[in-house]
Specification:
Blueprint lengths: L1 H7 L1 E5 L16 E5 L19 H15 L3 H14 L6 H15 L4 H22 L7 H15 L7 H14 L5 H17 L4 H22 L4 H21 L4 H14 L4 H13 L6 H13 L3 H13 L3 H14 L3 H19 L2 H14 L4 H13 L13 H15 L4 H12 L5 H5 L9 E4 L5 E4 L2
Helix pairs in contact: 2-3, 2-4, 3-4, 4-5, 5-6, 6-7, 7-8, 8-9, 8-10, 9-10, 11-13, 12-13, 13-14, 14-15, 15-16, 16-17, 16-18, 17-18, 18-19, 19-20
C-alpha cells in the first residue's frame, strides 16, 4: 500500500533561487514538478557511500515541502529534520526550504544555548549542501558559501569580527567573478574594514580587498549597463559607498599606496588599462598630489592623450610649482578638447598662471583673450586683463602718462561685471582702488592731451583706446 501511495505522489524540486544578481538574500524558489521513482528493495547503503533515499524519506520530503511552501514552518520542522538527518542527498528542496525553516526556528528561541544549537545546524546545513549539491552548475559551492556567509553575519552572536564569514565571502567572490551577488561584495569590504579597524596589520590585505571588490563592481556595471539598468545603478551606488568607507578608513594613506604601486607603475608603463585603474583609484582615495599618481597619469597621457588627462597633469604640475609645465599641459588640453567652454577654461587657467605665478602680463592678456574667443561671457577673463593692465610697468617713462593704465584697467573691469554680474562686488572693490590712481587735475594741467573726455590711446602691449577722466 505504501508503494502505491508513493507512486501516486509527485513532489516539487526546488532550486533554492537566491534571486541571483537581484537580491541580497535567497528569495522565492523556482518550482519544477518532477515524478518521484520509488527505490526498489533499498539496501542499507548505496554503492556510492551516500545515504539511502528510503520510502519514508520521500514521504517526509513531500510533507515538509508542502508545509514550507505555505510558510507553515512548525508543521514542516519535524519531517524536514527527518530528511536532513537521514537522507540529506535526496533533493535540493531540503536546503532551499531548510533555510527558511531554520530562520523561523531561530526567531522562536529565547534560550541562548538552544539558539546556538539551531545556529550550528544552519551552518551544518550549508556544509551538507556543498557536500551533496555543490557541483550544481547554477548554484555552485562558491554561491552556497556566499549565502552561508550572509546568514552567519545576520544570525551569529558574540562574534564582532565575523572572520569565518569574511573568508567564505572571499571564496564566493573568487569563484563567481562578475556573477557575484552585490551584497556579497559589499559585506566583504565591510568585514575587511572591520578587521583593519581592529588590527592595522590587516592594512595591506584591506587595500587588496577593496581593489578586488571595486574591480568586480566595475565588471558588473560594464556587463549589465545596457541590459539591466536597475542592477547597474545598484552596483554604482554600492561602489560609491565602498569608496567612501575605504577613503575614511585611513588605510589608504598616500605614502603607503606609493610604496605599493611605484614599482608596479614602472612595470606596466605601456598598459593603458592598468594605468587608468591606478589613476582612478588614486583619485578616489584623494592622493592626486602623489608622485605615483602623476607618473601614472603622465604615462597614460603619452599612450592616449585626452583633454582630461592633460588637464589633470596641468593641475598636478601646478601643485608641484612646475608652472611652465602646467601651461604646456593646459595648451595640450585646449588642443585636444572639442568643447568651447572647456577650451575657454583651459586658456583662462593659463592666463592665471602667467599673471599670478610667472608675472608675464602680456601673455596674461593673450590667453585671456583666447579664452574670450571660446566663451565671450567669461567675465573673469576681462577681469584678469584689467588686473594685468593695472600691474603693467614700463608702458610710459612719463609718470603722468603711466597712470593711464588705470583707465583701461577700469574699462576692462566694467566689461567684466557687464558680462558676468556675479563679479560685481569684487570688481567694484578693485575699481574703487584704481580710481584713486587716475591722473589728478594738477597732472592734467600740464598734459592737455589728457583733458577730461578726450580719447587717449594706451600703447605698448596694452594697445587700447580709452576716455580720459
Amino acid at each position: 500500500m505504501k508503494k502505491l501511495i508513493l507512486l501516486s505522489l509527485s513532489i516539487v524540486v526546488l532550486t533554492n533561487c537566491y534571486a541571483q544578481r537581484r537580491t541580497r538574500r535567497a528569495a522565492k524558489e523556482e518550482v519544477t514538478p518532477v515524478e518521484v521513482v520509488t527505490p526498489q528493495e533499498p539496501a542499507a547503503e548505496e554503492p556510492t557511500g551516500e545515504p539511502v533515499i528510503t520510502e519514508e524519506c520521500l514521504i517526509n520530503l513531500s510533507l515538509f515541502n508542502e508545509s514550507a511552501k505555505n510558510q507553515q514552518y512548525a508543521d514542516a520542522l519535524d519531517p524536514w529534520n527527518q530528511v536532513f538527518d537521514n537522507c540529506p542527498n535526496a533533493n535540493r528542496a531540503i536546503y532551499s526550504h531548510g533555510r527558511n525553516i531554520l530562520h523561523w526556528l531561530l526567531s522562536q528561541q529565547t534560550d541562548e544555548a538552544k539558539y546556538q544549537e539551531v545556529f550550528d545546524r544552519l551552518m551544518l546545513m550549508y556544509d551538507k549542501r556543498i557536500q551533496y549539491f555543490g557541483d550544481d552548475p547554477r548554484y555552485s559551492t562558491p554561491w552556497i558559501k556566499g549565502l552561508k556567509a550572509l546568514d552567519y553575519i545576520v544570525f551569529v552572536k558574540n562574534d564582532e569580527l565575523k572572520e569565518p564569514a569574511y573568508q567564505w565571502l572571499e571564496e564566493a567572490m573568487d569563484g563567481l567573478g562578475d556573477e557575484t551577488e552585490i551584497e556579497v561584495i559589499r559585506q566583504f569590504v565591510i568585514l575587511s574594514d572591520r578587521l583593519y579597524a581592529n588590527d592595522n596589520a590587516h592594512g595591506d590585505k584591506y587595500i587588496a580587498d577593496y581593489l578586488k571588490a571595486n574591480d568586480l563592481l566595475e565588471s558588473i556595471i560594464e556587463k549589465v549597463q545596457d541590459s539591466d539598468s536597475i542592477l547597474a545603478a545598484q552596483a554604482t551606488q554600492y561602489k560609491n559607498g565602498l569608496d567612501i568607507v575605504f577613503a575614511e578608513s585611513g588605510a589608504a594613506d598616500c605614502e603607503t599606496l606609493d610604496g605599493l604601486y611605484e614599482d608596479k607603475i614602472a612595470a606596466n608603463e605601456d598598459d593603458l588599462g592598468y594605468l587608468n585603474k591606478i589613476i582612478s583609484f588614486y583619485r578616489r582615495v584623494r592622493c592626486v598630489e602623489s608622485k605615483v599618481y602623476f607618473d601614472a597619469a603622465e604615462k597614460a597621457h603619452k599612450i592616449q592623450p585626452t583633454a582630461e588627462s592633460a588637464s589633470a597633469l596641468a593641475a598636478m604640475s601646478y601643485n608641484q610649482e612646475e608652472f611652465q609645465q602646467a601651461v604646456n599641459y593646459y595648451e595640450d588640453a585646449t588642443r585636444l578638447s572639442e568643447i568651447d567652454e572647456d577650451k575657454a577654461d583651459y586658456q583662462y587657467k593659463i592666463s592665471q598662471i602667467y599673471y599670478s605665478k610667472i608675472g608675464d602680463y602680456p601673455r596674461t592678456k593673450t590667453h585671456a583673450l583666447n579664452a574670450l574667443e571660446y566663451d565671450s561671457s567669461l567675465g573673469s577673463a576681462h577681469m584678469i586683463i584689467g588686473l594685468a593692465y593695472a600691474a603693467a610697468k614700463g608702458i610710459y617713462d612719463d609718470p603722468v602718462l603711466s597712470k593711464s593704465v588705470f583707465w583701461v584697467a577700469v574699462d576692462r573691469l566694467n566689461k567684466a561685471k557687464q558680462v558676468d554680474p556675479s563679479l560685481a562686488e569684487d570688481v567694484d572693490k578693485l575699481i574703487a582702488t584704481y580710481v584713486r590712481h587716475f591722473p589728478s587735475k594738477e597732472d592734467i594741467f600740464f598734459k592737455p592731451e589728457l583733458s577730461n573726455g578726450k580719447s587717449f590711446y594706451v600703447g605698448g602691449w596694452i594697445g587700447e583706446t580709452t576716455i580720459c577722466r
